[in-house]
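As a warm-up, study this chain.
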Amino acid sequence: MKYLTKMKKLIELDYRILNDFEAFNKVNTNWNIGSYLNTFFDINAALAFSKLYFPDFVDIQNCVILDFRYNEDLFKQWFTELNGEVSQVEKMCNLYELKDFFHINNNINDENKKNKVLDVFGTILKRSWEVNLKLLYPERSFKVDLFEEYESKFITLYSL
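Now compare it with the structure written out below.
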């Protein structure tokens, strides 16, 4: 009997952009993403990544700020400079350059591949933050924005 299979997914990931994935795949018949993760990472990395994809948020003055981006002094400066305009304050306080997530451990030397990886990473991060915001703040609308400026890729989020 033949079974009909369907695949559903929230994100698209071309495993060929992962360092060494294809090389291991060629010599291991049962190689998959689980094998890759088990070979190159540990449970501590998995737990730490959960906070990247499912971040905590700080609610202050009706603004929603990523916990790892929150700095009280910077928040006060932006809030004052932007006259308390919630969306603009959120946009500036949540702004982050994608390459800075892994600037210490960057082992991709090819600029084209690095840009492709950052594009995919940004798209995945965007999707996960959108899902989180919908679950945590169902009464509010947010935009998670990916954009390129000054030859760098950025991500931010803000209320609509």
